[in-house]
Amino acid sequence: MENEFKNLAFIDGQNLYMGTSKREIDPWEINLTRFCVYLDEKYNVGNAYYFLGYVQEANQELYEEIQKAGFLLVFREHNPAMIGKKKGNVDSDIVFHVMKNLYKKENFKKIILVSGDGDYKLLVDFLIAENRFEKILFPNREFASSLYKKLGSEYFDYLENIKTYIT
Question: Does the residue 117 lie in any domain?
Answer without folding.
Answer: no
